[in-house]
Fold these 2 entries.
Entry 1:
Amino acid sequence: MAARAPEPQVLLCLGALLARWVAADALLAVLESLALDGILCLPASGLDFVFSSCPGFWAWCGQNGERIRTSCGSGLASDRSNGAPCNQTEDWGLETVVVGEVHENTTLHCGNISEARGLVTWYRNDSEPIFLLSSNSSRPPAKPRFSLVNASSLHIEALSLQDEGNYTCWEALNDTRWFQVWLQVASGPYQVEVNISSTGVLPNGTLYATQRSRVDFSCASSSRPPPMIEWWFRAPDSKTEPFGNNLTVSSFTLLLMSQNLQGNYTCVAKNLLSGRQRSVTTELLVYTPPPLSDFECWAEMLPRLFMLQLTCRWNGGYPDPNLLWTEEPGGVVVGTSKLGVEMLNRSQLSDGKKFKCVGSHIAGPESGASCVVQIRAPSLLSEPMKTCFVGGNVTFTCLVSGAYPSAKILWLRNLTQPEVAIQPSSHYLITQKGQSSTLTIHNCSQDLDEGYYVCRAENPVGVREVAIWLSVKEPLNIVGIVGTIVSLLLLGLAIISGLMLYYSPVFCWKWDKTWVTSWFWWMRKKRWRRKTMLQKKRRRRRRKKRKPMRGEEFSIEIHQAQATFTE
């Protein structure tokens, strides 16, 4: 059997006894070299906990004396199970968490002690303890960015992700004390990326979607640890409201976009470790295409200016469409605007000219919409002459046809002053219905009202006039006229009768006698016929009442014959 190596238990006891009298830095150098060489690992039954004089350095040794694990600081509170050696208390090893950010500076405090401090040494706990810094001025720091603050706290400049880990602060004064600090290094969030699958992009970069379309939203950001993603929405003139959150990536879809979903969408990426957050806000507009049935255009005359106004409207959409007016044929541009209103003077107009309005909208339809208006000069129709009796009423009627835009109708007095328009009054009554106008004159006067009247129809395309002559006469006496006519007829008859009696009285007598005789015989014949008819009726009634005997019938017949003969 191989000889067993001498057990270095004496060295451990010696180190513990001399710790109070020997300078801490000299003892540190000796015990550190022993620990690193494995001398401090002692064989024991099972898994024993061994305290070494290496500051913050603990070793677990197996039955065969091999080193199972070496740890500084962080493993102390969780793995120490057999009691604290050298009268150390549990509170000294409590772990503190410090959060730092990449490229920033941070300070790790060695416990929470305000009294005088002894020799302080900082270690980094990896698979092997790494010396960082000591208050002993003879030992330089491991890196220039490590420094001591207040002779105890470790100050680290320009943190990197590699600095994250467990740190142990070892202090040697009357007793040996250590403190564990867990440094967590956070980074980000950086470069928040927002993707919205909208319908299109405006020249200024604003996104827009059409109504009832589908829009997908997604947001992501690089961070350590992964960020919390939050979505917020704010409609115009309303409060901000959340859409939800996710730990890694957030995406959602809005179906059937509507006007109330127009607004600002904000993606917030938050680092839960450092509390730092970044946000990106994107404005999304929701556009509504106008219906084709609401497209219309027309022309009208401006009052008092006699200018033509072209108006084009396409309602029901958002935003307002673009409206273009052109002359047809030729396509000469008259004007373009969102209002669709253009003003033209008479020099730009002619009878039968056409103007076309073309509308386009960013949300469609692609073909747009159009309509055409054709302007026309007015045509007039009226009676050329009217008659009015003194004290009576008369009405003129003027009909306008073919005018577009609608014509303005005026009534003028006399051809010598055609620009003097008749104003409505108690004497003149003017009414207009559509393109038909009437002028009624009450209580006609021959001196004031007789003469020419002019009906004028005017629109920006042209002017038309028609003249009407009014004749005012005295009223006629109908009764006198009738009496005069009857008197004349009677006088004529009397004259004719007198002439006939004067020149041929015999002829007149004969003619009169013949006429009287004829009348007498005609009346007698009429009377005989009437009597005969009555007799026949009587006989019929008698026959119905009774049937006569044969002899009676014979006598009746004889009697009737005698009566007839007598007559």
Entry 2:
Amino acid sequence: MACARVPLDEQQVTERDAVGKERSLPALHPDRKEERFFVPYVPLSADACPAEVEEFLERSKFILEDLEWLLALPHDKFWCQVVFDTSLQKCLDSYLHHAPRRLDLVPEPSSPGVAETQRALHRAVFFVFLRMATHKESKENFITPAVFGEVLYENYLFDIPKIMDLCMLFGKGNAQLLHKMIENIFTQQPSYYRDLDDTVPTILAVFDTIEEKCGVRCDAAAAAEPMKLNARNQPTSISMTQQDFVDIVLYLCDTSSTLHAFLNIFPAACSTFHSHSFLSRLTSFYESVVPDLEMALTKRKFEDKSLQEDVWQRLSHSCRKMLEIAHLLLHHTCLQPILEGVENMQTFAEELLQHFTSFLSEKRFLCDYDKLFPIAEDVSLLQQALPVIDETRTSYLLQGVHSARDSMGRSKPQPTVSVSQLANQETMREASLSIGHDVRQAEGGRESPRGAEAMLDAPRRGSNGAICPVSEAELESLLSCIRDLLPDLGEGFLMACLEEYGYDSEVVINNILEGQLAPALDAMDRSMPRPVKENLPGVLSSRSNVFDDDEFDVFRRDRVDMTRVWKGRRKGESVEELLNDKQHISEQRTRYQAYQTVVDEVELQPGDTAEGARGTSASYGIGDEYDDEYDDTYDMNQVGANDQDGDTLLNRRPFTIPRVLQKANKAEEPQEEENQEDQGLQSNMNRDQFIEDPALLRERVEAKRTAMQERKGIRVEHPSHVVGRPKGQGQTLETFLDRRKKEANKGRGANHNRRNMADRKRNKGMIPS
């Protein structure tokens, strides 16, 4: 067995060979690999028959069982299998290469078993890569970081294409885990940064390939290379076949989506792309290729309208991802250092302004970028961080952006969300990028997620979200702008149109005038009024709390006594003051005094009511006086006076005010004799009252003890004043006398009169002086 707390690369294990002889081997050795064959992954085709579906399920089951067996292996066995088993690497590579993406033109599996199997396989592959990217699983199971980096790099367990595919396949919902994985890989093996630097030119060559296939070349590329003789005969985006055109759009969509997922999860790679002038090449590619593909897609006639709609959505998705890539590069290489306050902020600000200025020549890219990420907001943020920025230069930049929008016929962009929020809105409708009036209605729908990622509880196509990206004031402004031109349309119909077309008033007006509304909107009543907005009940009015309507309820009271509110211990308050505060007693005294007031007879004037005396509302008039002719023969007979009455109210003791509520200044009657005083004290102690004040009890006992000592002739010792006042405030005569008495008599007790006896011996000559 491997030794504890020792790295795996330094461990030695003892095993028996085929003959049965023991031998010592390193923990990472090819002979320790289990003989197991991992079958490669084969995707399910779109037109698969039941036999092919059964074959796919069986193959996926084999792969899933093998991967679960691999994940259950111990740490040393797992790494031996990963490093030395080539069939495992081929299986993992085949899944990364052939696993269905979200944007593939592949229909969703109709069988629930296929979807469940694909989901389980997707999860198992991710866990295998996650364990492969972890060099320390526990305190006992770990690999030396330097050796870990060498193992990954020398055995090709990870490379840049694999990392990008991982971001594309597993990025949604696992961004934080992937970021830690990739960061650990690049930290332990810096050679991957060199590989990434070598990969960027390959990605730039993809742009050249797409431009060449479409028959467009930017000016810089045309000047760098001479045109071939057969270049004029090459097909363009309009003349090429439909399948080639669809392949180019899908190729562009896959490239832009994968690159955006990688840069979004691992922002540290932005500096490498920035060093190769990737941003300038991306803007020129966008300016030359996107309008050409849009025009070709507009002029092409597709027999399958659903295919045309899918191609439009993927082209729009590609444009958006390229714009977000540009924003990621600008944010992490220029804007983020300024916000963090690094030393050379002026250099980063100058570089950011140079990039914005270079965008002015690429009008299409500038308008689309400014629509998603308004340049005015970045300039305003830049001016707040660096007030020394040249205002003339920023004004020229903003004026150039405004001129580009006017030349392209664009409106002022609405406020948008940040990059972090855009990364979490993959399921929302792809924004329109002004790619032609003839196909606006194809952009109103929501993109349909497909592939392995779509099987992980992704929203289905056609769901209509209720999220409004504009404020109430902006919505009113858009409605008023449209109703100025089309006053006969209802606000409810216009709100549905704005929601369908991304709250772009120009697109709504154009589609209404040209009759190119979506079928759902065309079937609606155009005079439909605005739906009544339901007012939600207030939270304060519907809440219930035990502290409602108390003196500190700020939601129902305008004024609160702040003198009774403090934080921590109340200043200037002591325990003695708290105990001596009898304010609550004085507040209750008047209430209890009213209970002892007993009125036997109440004189009423004619017309007065008897509510106060008897609790009734009867009125006494002139004729209600005493009648002398009343027969009172039997009134003097006390019938039942001596009988036992069960009513306890008549036999109870009279009401007595509690002692604590009686007046404090009420003088007590002097008691001359001691027996009478003791009886009085005993009677007071037996009264039905609360616990007496301990201070009064101590005073009473002390007075009784003093009186007893005086009767017996015992001299009462007065309290000593030796302590006196604090130093510097002077001392009284009692303190001075008590201190002198203590000094003279302090040898009388424990010292056995040593001082007096020593003086006596010295006076008699017994001690030589």
